[in-house]
Amino acid sequence: KVTAHIVQTLREIGPEVSYIYIVDDACPDGSGKLVEREVKDPRVKVIFHTENLGVGGATVSGYRAALESDAQIVVKLDGDGQMDPALIKDLIAPIVTGRADYTKGDRFDSLTGLSKMPGIRLFGNAGLTLLTKISTGYWNITDPTNGYTAIHRDALKALPLAMLSKRFFFESDILFRLSIYRAVVWDVPMVARYGTEKSNLSIVKTLWEFPWKHFKNFHKRLFYNYYLRDISAASIELPLGMLLWWFGVFSGLGALNSSLTNGIAASTGTVMIAVVPLILGFQLLLAFVSHDVSAVPTRPKHRQNLEW
Question: Which of 227, 257, 274 represents a domain boundary (last residue)?
Fold first, then answer.
């Protein structure tokens, strides 16, 4: 549903872009045919889907087409007019200069920009930001559902494109896959342009699906990064901290129940049996979180490949 904006968006794309792939994801308004009819830019190629595959499926089709070319950096730009093509240079700069493998827009950087964001989007993005930080380990990013992104060819080739989420969880899922690859991700400040277009994202569906998917990705990341590929102090701090904390919780609840049932206050020793594991467990969990935050990737993968 981008027919009112896509032609103008394409006309605003600068000469720094060599190839432009338009994915018509079985658009009921015929956006692909509109582009073929109205846009004569030789860089433009339209890819048609016979069935709707969702934002993830459409993006993957564009990614695959870009990988067949000699493009070194691939930018994802929505055709609804909310993303300013003039920001492409800013978006790719950290990748071009060897500081990042993947960049994404960040609408939370500017207070002026935030004031223009619809309230429901602001609230939802704030909650999803926290969930994404936990599930991906990218504690340095915000606005995780922002679809204005750029990725280096090497990082894109390393992604399991067939396994990426096909629908609105796509942006969050690709961050999870990048975290397994240990890619460097940067936020690039931007201000979205909001008009009369309506979001296809269901709030109820998001609240139901996203937390569970983040939960699964979090546990996959823990297993891959802390037990399969490497073992460190953090690998011990997490399970031991959880074990002690839960032992303290259940010991405390048991002592409280006994006191209420018998009418006799718990002894100091009984209280300490609950308190000490709680404190130690909490400290170990804090140590794990501190380690996880400090483990955010800082050395771009594509730069390592050049050095090799």
Answer: 227
